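Worked example

This section walks through a single chain of length 201. The input is the sequence exactly as stored; nothing has been trimmed or padded.
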Amino acid sequence: MKKVLVLNSSLNGEQGNSTKLSQLFVEQLANNQQISVTTRDLSDNAIAHLTQTEMAAWMTDANERSDEQKLLAAISDDLIAELNDNELIVIGMPMYNFGIPSTFKAWIDRIARAGITFKYTEQGAVGLIKDKKVVVLAARGGVYQGTEMEMDTQTKYLKDVLGFVGMTDVNFIYAEGLAMPGAEQSLEAAQNEIKAFTASL
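Given that input, the structure is written out below as tokens.
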């Protein structure tokens, strides 16, 4: 049975295009094989932005943490455990002001931890999260792929930061121009790509 972690972060919840795409992905995948799905909505159940106090809790030896530090460290520990427990990571990714939602960044800040999900060596940083396939379902109001507008900061950032912690198999399916004429055709093309991708897994 394939274990799937779905991460959504649309402010529009289930009505968000990126969320609808992630729902379709799971439905199509379930048609082809047995799956176990864990869904985390980072918008409705937002993780607070990282603070110095929380980071200090990570850096304190587990046996020496105060009760408050144990609670703070558990936020990151639980998210990393959840990530490690799943083999397929499906990310519903809306674009806000050319970047990722801040709620998703807060998730990144919890799962990127030195000594836990990556380590530094003489040859540089080495990611410690292995054997994950990531699928990013990117929903955008405008069109950026194949144009001269270099305003999409999502794609490179997500490849870089996920690869940094060891998740190098990162795939993108784009639904662009959703606030423009022709949105229905763009959405349909993304849906067809999802169907083909899930059939190949």
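What to look for: The longest strand covers residues 2-8.
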